[in-house]
Design brief:
5-stranded antiparallel sheet, 4-stranded antiparallel sheet, mainly beta, single chain, 17 strands
Length: 260
């Protein structure tokens, strides 16, 4: 008895070369999903990366996802006062999907960071990542806010969302910003500022938040090399004598292209 699986079978050897062209095949049958990442050096003080991307042959649709660079950590310079600290914020996120045509070009920049370690009690915001090209303009994700140090005795504990991007802002379909790290100020005991901590945050959907804490430390610089899009590490001190330290830089931005 004949089996159904024996019917409608075509052997490739029975088809003459060049008799079936790509125009005779359903376009969805030729789809090939590809992903391309664009990023700069993972090291401190990274300049980011900018390039020109050309849509490959056969590609009809592309999704751009972008993350801004993380903000720099603050320096610490104590002068007879204890400090409290706000953690640097991770970069913002934005995404957009558009129809494309082979040969179209796009200028793509994964944002860098301010290329200097902060010794002051404020840092610098991370740089913006963006994509510009055919049918796509004003599409970007801003960098995260910097960390900062504060020597006020009137503040205790505080945290907030710096900004939440509504859909459509900065040329995208959906975007958002991460939480900015909180700070904590237990009352100083004599001239020892014990238990200082803060949380520099990661960019949305990538990385992880980390807790930064110091209990008995003359001064600790922000020396950790943070992941992409992550807020930089603050300098911290537990003594209110005269001592200074520098904060670390944030992580560079990212661009991800998914195309078919």
């Amino acid at each position: 008895m004949a089996q159904y699986s024996n019917y409608k079978r075509v052997s490739g050897e029975t088809i003459a070369d060049n008799t079936i062209t790509s125009s005779q095949v359903n376009p969805t049958g030729l789809d090939t999903w590809c992903v391309k990442w664009i990023y700069g050096s993972p090291g401190n003080c990274t300049p980011g990366c900018c390039c020109l991307w050309t849509v490959p042959t056969g590609v009809r649709r592309a999704t751009f996802e972008i993350w801004g660079a993380g903000g720099n950590g603050t320096g610490a310079c104590s002068c007879n006062r204890c400090h409290i600290y706000a953690g640097a914020q991770g970069g913002y996120y934005n995404t957009r999907t558009i129809d494309v045509t082979a040969g179209w070009t796009y200028t793509i920049c994964a944002g860098g960071v301010y290329r200097c370690y902060s010794r002051e009690t404020t840092g610098c915001q991370g740089c913006t990542s963006y994509v510009n090209g055919c049918n796509l303009s004003n599409f970007c994700a801003i960098g995260g806010a910097s960390g900062f140090a504060e020597n006020s005795w009137s503040l205790a504990c505080f945290s907030y969302w710096s900004c939440c991007m509504a859909p459509g802002n900065w040329g995208g379909e959906f975007g958002m910003g991460p939480h900015r790290g909180h700070y904590w100020n237990p009352r100083g005991v004599f001239c020892h500022c014990h238990g200082r901590y803060t949380i520099p945050t990661s960019a949305p959907f990538i990385g992880t938040n980390v807790k930064q804490q110091a209990n008995f430390c003359w001064v600790r610089c922000g020396c950790w090399q943070v992941p992409y899009g992550h807020g930089g590490q603050n300098a911290m001190t537990n003594y209110c004598e005269r001592c200074c330290g520098q904060g670390g830089t944030g992580g560079g931005g990212l661009v991800k292209i998914t195309f078919v």
